[in-house]
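Pipeline run #58 for the internal structure catalog. This entry was flagged by the ingest filter as a single-chain record with no existing model, so it goes straight to prediction. Upstream metadata was stripped on purpose; only the residue string is passed forward. Reviewer on rotation: M.T. Logging verbosity set to normal.
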Amino acid sequence: MLPSPRTWLTIAAALSLLTALVAASSTSFAASSSSTVVSANVLSSTTLDLTGCGATTRDFGLVQPLATVRSSGACAVAFSSSNSTATLSASQRDRFGTAMTQASSVWTARSGTATYSAVDATSSSDLWVGGSPLIPGTAVLRHSVDSGATWSDVTPCAGATDIKELIAYSATEVLTVGNKVCRTTDGGATWSIIATPFALPTGPHLGAAAGTNVVWLNANGGGRVMRSADRGQTWTAITIPAISYGIRTIAARGTTTVVAMADRVNVGGTTRSMLAYSSTDSGVTWNEAVVRTTSTLTSSVGDVDVSTSGRFAVLGSAGYGLWSSDDNGVTWASRGTPGVVRLRHLVGTTWLTTNYQFGNMRISTDDAVSWSSFFPNGGDPRSIIQAVTKERGTNHVVMVGSNEQVLRSTTLGATWSPV
């Protein structure tokens, strides 16, 4: 039952992530260890039980419907409603604190000093992760040779402040892209900073063609992409004709086929379209397809990937959904709305998407046609999954996110363990 306006209560503990409960029985919130206590008298037969809180108490008195009250700290609060209509909402503003931490058998609680946004695995034991520090500085790059049991810090190339994408071709040969394009062939002991014909965008995306040396990279500026045929050592500038908006993400198949995604605000400014630009001749000629047009004016493109069978799939942001193409990006079919962050083909007909909602992911086992939701991290509200990869030669999956979180599955996503 939805609460009526007269019984709606919102209490925010001055801290951002939203948790809301509608309960007929007592429910406890695990909050911070601060000695500050929150208490309130709530209308409509609703009580907050502050048993177990510290000695210092802060009483907000009578809380009116739709009112918001805040404290500098909180403790254990039990909430109940005798008529099942009142609602308690609590939030944690900083997203990295422990006030709203939920116990989980999967995630290890940790604050973390970095956000991981890139991951690759050359085998079941050789893992690479990259990202950026929470306090701006040098990019973060780490390497494990024992399936994540231990990690070694690797010094990135000079001047690198973040790593948004990486490809590990072997335990020693790695390509990283962030504010710079860099390569190492000795496991990070030395680096080459690679010159590119176009400037890098703020959100670079690599599209590596599996089983080849070909890799594509979006660039800053209208219709600009770059192609490398030698694992990122040299790059060729390519401009998709007659478009003024930038390429957001890109995926490649074989040595000649590529699909690049963009979006545009249409004439009149009331609609926005998600667009696919595809080429089967290494970028000499291009086809444009309008995948979806909506009145949602936020950016439309989330991610794009391609399966080993040749099915391309693109994940749009909220309101755009997921679409797939079996003709190299010329026509597209709607596949629902399974996520908004990252999309990855794993193996065969299995795909994963990630969401911003507490690590919520969705899995498809029928080649991106239908999706089911699951929470691999037990619903820990502190971490957002940023990147997913499959360990080559296995059915193992690794995903990384905020707070330096790394999860690994040896069951193709059915169960997960922190590493």
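catalog note: The longest strand covers residues 257-265.
catalog note: The two ends are 41 Å apart (CA to CA).
status: ready for reviewer M.T.
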